[in-house]
Amino acid sequence: MALGEPFSQRRIGLTGGIASGKSSVGRWLAQQGLPVLDADQFAREALEPNRQATNTVLQRYGATIQAEGTEAIDRAALGRIMFEDPGERRWLEQLIHPIVRERFDQALTLGAKTPAIVLMIPLLFEAGLESLCSEIWLVDCDESQQLKRLIARDGLSPEAAQARIAAQWPLSRKRGLADHVISNKGQPGNWQAQVMVLLNATAEVDTD
Questions:
Q1: Would you state the pLDDT for residue 204?
Q2: What are the sequence ranges of the domains in the chain?
Q3: Greater pLDDT, 173 or 71
Q4: Who has the most CB within 10 Å: 2, 14, 99, 116?
Q5: Domain covering 1-35+115-200 assigned CATH 3.20.20.370 in the classification
């Protein structure tokens, strides 16, 4: 759970498993006027052409992950390596996570006077970023739904989809670590009422 530090603002850590629906919740919160800091966006920016991290990745994998005729990374090719080889995934995470953390620190400093801010971080627990948040919301669904949604969303085989799910902590492990669990098990959009209640509630502070 969030550490309950006396932040000067409400910092909502929004997380979940792949294809659990956290991006939909994040977009909805942005529509309500909350600034949303997106860890995936920061990670994508870190691997744009001519960035230091991009050059490091290209040096490691060469033409196998280089988009033809460009200095850009073929993200699909890189993704296949990452999800097929846990060691390579850890290497990439060790390269990218510090960059993402620095971007969060910069953005939080710039937005220090904002009353509330959302930190959308898929690997919040895996990366140990709980201390950035005053509270943590987990977007939850059944593991079978997660698999079906990922196959439908990304056009993956069941085996490839399962490998991507297995690369993260299971939702069953994350449920006990979150301050609030948002059920996304039913029809699309059913979570909105839950999120509205949480958004209107005063942020809880852990007094233990």
A1: 46
A2: 1-35+115-200, 48-110
A3: 173
A4: 14
A5: no
Chain centroid to Cα 2, Å, comes to 16
* End-to-end Cα spacing for the chain: 12
Is residue 66 within 8 A of residue 74, CB to CB? The reply is yes
Q: What angle do CA 153, 19, 33 make, to 5 degrees?
A: 105
Beta-bridged to residue 182, according to DSSP, are: 139
- Joined tokens for residue 160: 């490839």
As a whole number of angstroms, the distance between CA 171 and CA 139 comes to: 9
Picking from 11, 10, 196, the residue whose alpha carbon sits closest to that of residue 119 is 11
3-state secondary structure the chain: CCCCCCCCCEEEEEEECCCCCHHHHHHHHHHCCCCEEEHHHHHHHHCCCCCHHHHHHHHHHHHHHECCCCCCECHHHHHHHHHHCHHHHHHHHHHHHHHHHHHHHHHHHHCCCCCEEEEECCCCCCCCCHHHCCEEEEEECCHHHHHHHHHHHHCCCHHHHHHHHHCCCCHHHHHCCCCEEEECCCCCCCCHHHHHHHHHCCCCCCCC
pLDDT digit string (tens) for 73-89?
Answer: 999 999 999 998 999 99
The answer to whether residues 28 and 198 touch, using CB atoms and an 8 Å cutoff, is no
